[in-house]
Amino acid sequence: SKLTSLGQLEMTWRSRVHFHPLLVRVLHKSRLRYYGKPEKKLDMPYQAYFEVADGSGMMSMVLWNSLCPEWYNSMKVGTVLLLEQYAIKTSYPFKTQPTPGDSQMKRFATIEISLNVRDPPTKISIIPEETVKPEWGLPEVKYRFITRSELDGLPNNHSCDVIGLVTFVGRAERARKREHGEDFWLYRWAHAIDGTSDQPFILELFATSQPDVFEHIHPMTYLVCTQMRVVRDLTENPSSTTYLTTSNESQIFITGWHKGQPYTKDTKVKNFIQWTKTQNEADQMKKTVIGGYYPFPRPPNNFLKY
């Protein structure tokens, strides 16, 4: 069939009602959002954002309502999609923006692709990776992996990906989303080492839309976290309280989930795997901790400062 590109869509979308099919690769994936309210009678009030790209650039794609339970888990980072009968809308201006792995990629920010059950009913097809042809010109997924030794030089809010061996994982904790609201964020703290520093990565992991991974983070698992943000305390002692926190587009993977993921080709990931082969498992096991209360950032040593 005749295909269109994201670049052509941006130029011609106002003058068209029906659009040619699109062939795109998923580069980023947000957590699933529930927007139900008691007074609105929607069966499945869900929404998820994806950033998709072809040879011309990158654009947001929104999956709506009952398409979310049907497709959300199948649309992984790296998945190639053929989209037919989709709608084009003006972009929502307040959504979060992931940091692209490829800084040269053109971003089409004025419009977004909308996938719905009706008006029009979108047809989605997943193209198996082995049948993807090089002449389609689809970009590869690129990452921004950092090592622990590089972390201290990075600014606050910098976006990065990390891999490490888990040495500590805390219990799941809850924080209120709003002061007097009834909604909570669920999160847990973890430490991971990668052999490049005496210090571990300190990770604040909020529950993403991957409960099967979030609940099974254990010491001695290989943990990959993408689209993490650097949080640096710029007040008293900057070095002591640098940690990484998840963003809306973060994905978390543990041992057993790495096979076939695009990051397995990354040089820093390969270097980490080489380092783990030089480690004695029994020695590392002795240093691991699980559960308990983890106050972080640490309160000051005396009450006057506190």
Give a quick set of tags describing it.
OB fold (Dihydrolipoamide Acetyltransferase, E2P); RADX; 6 helices; 306 residues; 5-stranded mixed β-barrel; 12% helix; 16 strands
Description:
This is RADX protein. It comes from Sula dactylatra (Masked booby). It holds the Pfam family RADX. GO terms for molecular function: single-stranded DNA binding. The chain has 306 residues and is mainly beta. It has two domains: 6-136, Beta Barrel (OB fold (Dihydrolipoamide Acetyltransferase, E2P)), CATH 2.40.50; 148-305, Beta Barrel (OB fold (Dihydrolipoamide Acetyltransferase, E2P)), CATH 2.40.50. The chain is 12% helix and 32% strand. The chain has helices at 6-12, 67-71, 148-151, 211-214, 267-277, 281-286; strands spanning 22-29, 33-34, 46-54, 57-64, 80-84, 87-90, 107-115, 123-127, 159-169, 173-176, 184-193, 201-206, 222-231, 243-246, 252-253, 289-290. Strands 1, 2, 3, 4, 5, 6, 7 and 8 form an eight-stranded mixed beta sheet that branches. The longest helix has 11 residues, at 267-277. The N and C termini lie far apart (67 Å). 27% of the residues are buried.
